[in-house]
Specification:
The protein is α/β, with parallel strands linked by helices and 307 residues long. The protein has nine helices and 14 strands.
């Protein structure tokens, strides 16, 4: 028996693979390497470069060859902003890939799937912190694609006797991240240490969770045993984009001029205020070790060391 991790060469996926290996599991990784890196994959995992949306026959063979009995489905296009420029890319890598994966699981009788979703499924909300039972009305193509994936997974669970654990993440940050606001700020400042362009007005206020806290929460949530288990994962506070910029500059020893593009959104589909309720997981005994500011500072140091 083995566990399949899709997107296991990516930021979050590679950390999940490391944890599974540490716990003694036989792990198979599939990743198309569009955003992941081969050197992120644990040397004790089996790796296949594969496109979930295109290579269903090959994926089926992998399931059969390795006797897969559980799937951690983490593969996705992680760039929320690309949805307004290329919706087809989001559809293929998120929705179509999930459908193709579920079909292979159905055919071989694999009944357990862990899926990584996002806070953006909620869209702009009137309830902060936002609980899991809040309506999902996304304002981004990325968020919509994750709602579609959640719905597909839930329907397969009820139709084909599967079980699922769906995790809606706040902003996950830390070692191996290659996108997002911290990564972008570091890259911009390395090109021009005298000026930092910040999207929006810098007042966007969101929750950030460090990668180790996120992975711990995912494993903790497996204690739940409904057919469809849905959990928010995040920190219990928020941090503004301008403060993140200040922390990056502090850690890099720089004092650039901040220039703001204006408007309350960083890009079309950006949700400027986000804080998830994590009471559901906390009631089971889990809580994050780091708050948002601690997570940001730790992640900045990680990236400065690794980039």
């Amino acid at each position: 028996m083995a566990i399949l991790v899709t997107g296991g060469a990516g930021f979050i996926g590679s950390h999940v693979v490391d944890r599974l290996i540490d716990e003694g599991y036989d792990v198979v990784v599939v990743d198309n390497l569009s955003s992941g890196r081969r050197d992120f994959v644990n040397e004790n995992a089996r790796f296949y470069q594969l496109d979930l949306a295109e290579d269903s026959d090959r994926l089926l063979e992998i399931f059969k060859t390795h006797d897969i009995d559980e799937v951690w489905h983490i593969a996705a296009n992680p760039d929320v902003r690309i949805g307004s420029e290329n919706p087809d890319e989001i559809y293929r890598n998120n929705v179509l890939a999930t459908y193709k994966l579920l079909e292979v699981m159905r055919k071989v009788g694999v009944r357990r799937i862990i899926f990584t979703s996002t806070s953006t499924v909620y869209g702009e909300v009137k309830v902060i912190p936002t609980p899991e039972d809040y309506p999902t009305i996304p304002i981004s193509i990325y968020g919509a694609s994750k709602v579609a994936c959640e719905a597909l997974i839930a329907s397969y669970c009820h139709t084909f006797d599967m079980k699922s654990w769906i995790y809606r993440f706040a902003n996950v940050i830390g070692r191996r991240s290659n996108h997002g606001v911290i990564y972008d700020f570091i890259m911009k400042l390395r090109k021009n240490p005298n000026e930092l362009v910040i999207l929006g007005d810098g007042e966007q206020n969101k929750s950030y969770i460090y990668i180790s806290d996120c992975v711990d929460a995912m494993f903790f949530g497996l204690k739940a045993d409904e057919d469809v288990n849905i959990f928010n994962i995040g920190s219990e506070d928020q941090i503004k984009v301008k403060r993140i910029a200040e922390i990056v500059c502090e850690e890099m020893g720089l004092n650039p001029v901040f220039k703001f593009t204006g408007g309350r959104r960083g890009w079309k589909g950006d949700v400027p205020i986000m804080l998830l309720s994590i009471e559901k997981l906390k009631s089971m005994g889990w809580k994050p070790k780091y708050n948002s500011e601690q997570a940001v500072r730790k992640a900045v140091r990680d990236l400065l060391e690794g980039l």
